[in-house]
């Protein structure tokens, strides 16, 4: 399974493009992040920095730019790749969601209600 399929399996909106900047303009006030790396199999995306974690966690809509060079074949490789770029990492694989005792699903309780990943491919 590729990264786009893994992310979609997690309920993430995925856009594949060769021009991420053009796509970002469609999202207005959404918080935009650059991913440090991602695991192709699980769809886990790594980010770096305390401020980034705070801003991404408080955003209603988190839009992520992920370059294909930063997609790794396993979680350990993705983690190490991200760690080479930042000493403070956090990860995300979908929008924030939780369920109450009756099973009612609520989005945005502990982070963004929506996660969009723009995969930027090289031509």
Strand content: 25-35%
Low-pLDDT stretches are none
Helix fraction, binned, reads: 10-25%
What class do helices, strands and sheet pairing give? alpha/beta
How many H/I helices? Answer: 4
Give the neighbour order of strands across the main sheet. Answer: 1-10-5-2
Distance between the termini: 22 Å
Oligomer: single chain
> What is the averaged pLDDT score?
88
| Number of strand elements | 10
Shape: globular
H/E element order: HEHEEEHEEHEEEE
**What Rg is obtained from the alpha carbons, in whole angstroms?**
14 Å
Largest sheet: 4 strands, parallel
Domain LUD: 76-119
Protein name: LUD domain-containing protein
Describe the structure.
Pfam families: LUD_dom (PF02589). InterPro entries: FTHF_cligase-like_sf, LUD_dom, NagB/RpiA_transferase-like. The protein is α/β, with parallel strands linked by helices. It is 24% helix and 34% strand. It has 4 helices and 10 strands; from the N terminus they run H-E-H-E-E-E-H-E-E-H-E-E-E-E.
Keywords:
123 residues; four-stranded mixed β-sheet; 34% strand
Describe the SSE topology.
Elements: H1 3-9, E1 13-17, H2 20-24, E2 31-34, E3 37-39, E4 45-48, H3 50-58, E5 61-67, E6 71-72, H4 75-83, E7 89-92, E8 97-99, E9 105-107, E10 114-120
Parallel strand pairs: 1-10, 2-5, 3-6, 5-10
Antiparallel strand pairs: 3-4, 4-7, 8-9
């Amino acid at each position: 399974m590729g990264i786009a399929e893994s992310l979609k399996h997690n309920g993430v909106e995925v856009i594949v493009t060769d021009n991420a900047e053009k796509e970002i303009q469609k999202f207005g006030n959404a918080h935009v992040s650059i991913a440090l790396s991602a695991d192709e199999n699980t769809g886990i995306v790594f980010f770096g920095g305390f401020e980034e974690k705070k801003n991404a966690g408080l955003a209603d809509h988190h839009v992520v730019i992920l370059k294909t060079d930063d997609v790794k074949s396993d979680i350990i490789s993705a983690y190490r790749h991200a760690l080479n770029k930042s000493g403070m990492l956090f990860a995300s694989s979908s929008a924030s969601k939780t369920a109450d005792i009756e099973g009612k699903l609520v989005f945005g309780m502990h982070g963004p209600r929506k996660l969009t990943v723009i995969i930027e491919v090289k031509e």
